Amino acid sequence: MKKITIMPAPLRKILSETTLSRLPLTPPLLVDIGETVEDIIHKMNETSLGCVLILKDKKLAGIFTERDLVHRVIDENIDLQTPIGNIMNSPVTTLSPEKSIAQTICMMVEKGYRHIPLMNKEGEILGLVRSRDIINYFAEHFPYEVYNQPPDPTLIPQTPEGA
Question: How many whole angstroms separate alpha carbon 43 and alpha carbon 91?
């Protein structure tokens, strides 16, 4: 795993000790493996969610995201009546509530994920961890660090800004 190097040590420590169980989770959009791509697109649009979790026999079977819509359905001109099970991403990477926010951020950065299902040991879907949820957590709990960060952390202003 990559180390987060631009983050101050106290913040890094807090995020390494804070588990995902502390995040307000997004309820996932659950769909059946036999639903069509067209139906899924409508549901994603209605709920303003960037992904759906696909179930087969009430178990998590796959995931379909906005990126899949753009890079696979549109780019490859896939028929909208295709069952979502034919083009979903599977197997799905999941996380447990005991994982730290720091571990989650590292996974999202390394793998390019924006949505990761959160599951308990019994295999129940507890929610969806989105990059947006982590950003909101940062902004709510560390407003000074978030709002006072320069666009490029390596650039430090030599003079105060403003009039």
Answer: 22
Rounded CA separation 87/111 (Å): 19
Give the separation between CA 144 and CA 155, rounded to whole angstroms. 18
Three-state SS at 49: coil
Q: How many domains does the chain have?
A: 1
Show the tokens assigned to 126: 């507890």
In a domain, residue 60? The reply is: yes
| 3-class SS string, 126-153 | EEEEEHHHHHHHHHHHCHHHHHCCCCCC
Residue 163 within a domain: no
CATH number at residue 124: 3.10.580.10
pTM, two decimals, is 0.79
At which residue do the structure tokens 């807090």 appear?
14
For 31-77, the pLDDT digits (tens) are 999 999 999 999 999 999 999 999 999 999 999 999 999 999 998 99
Phi and psi for 24 in degrees, rounded to 5? -75, 120
Q: What is the pLDDT of residues 16-35, one digit of tens each?
A: 899 998 888 889 999 999 99
- The answer to whether residue 109 scores a pLDDT higher than 60 is yes
Chain-centroid distance of CA 126 in Å reads 14
Domain around 126: 9-145
